[in-house]
Write a structure and sequence with these properties.
- The protein has helices at 7-15, 32-38, 73-85, 99-111, 125-137, 147-150, 170-177, 201-210, 217-227; strands at 61-67, 92-95, 116-119, 142-145, 160-163, 187-193.
- By secondary structure, the protein is an alpha/beta fold.
- The chain has two domains: 1-53, no CATH class; 61-242, P-loop containing nucleotide triphosphate hydrolases (Rossmann fold, 3-Layer(aba) Sandwich), CATH 3.40.50.
- Helix 8 packs across helix 9.
- Mean pLDDT is 85; it is low at 237-255.
- Residues 1-48 form the Helicase ATP-binding domain.
Amino acid sequence: MLDMGFEPQIRKIIEQIRPDRQVLMWSATWPKEVRALAEDFLIDYVQLNIGSLTLAANHNILQIVEVCQEHEKEYKLRRLLQEIGSEKENKTIIFVETKRKVDEITRCIRRDGWPAMSIHGDKNQVERDHVLQEFRSGRAPILVATDVAARGLDVEDVKYVINFDYPSSSEDYIHRIGRTGRSEQTGTAYAFFTPHNAKHATELVNVLTEANQSINPQLAEMASMARYGLPKSFGGGGSRLNRRGRGGEGRGRGG
């Protein structure tokens, strides 16, 4: 909740609770920004960690990064949905950055004949419950969502995650792709990565490297250029159909 911008509300609640209160906090990741805020609410605390504190993605998730231009993303999404739709298990979450774009992308997908539904902060609880019921049942196997709306979402059989818009941090990227590959299952995560996202290239390369994924050469070049503060324009990469081999560009399976 701290990471999602609810710090003022949390502070207001804490101020109205007796000073000898017991405070417990849980987090899937523990970035320094959230840690600094949490320390304001904790006194002489004990910290328990399960696994490494290093930012890391689930190794059961195949990560594929498509480097492209902004205007290419809608076409790439259509191609990708056609490929995914041919699979027997195809439950998919598509992440975008804004509520407005959630609605736009959902309308676009539905016009193409795909049974998609959406969830974002403007949906009331009844609407949210209905959307999630349709998604869990498989009647609407495509869910378009914002980060905030999807926090806490737990659906076991999600096979694909598509980052239509790359998130604002690597922590959010790892949270997003973690919607698949649950309970020791495998999953696949796609990311459309544009020159606008170049400042995140180095962190993304680090995440991919740690998870034993192949690095898209265009992404590697973008990370290299970003380190020196040099702008670079990149074109789109090939589709998933052109990269079936293990050594294919932009993909690799985690160990």
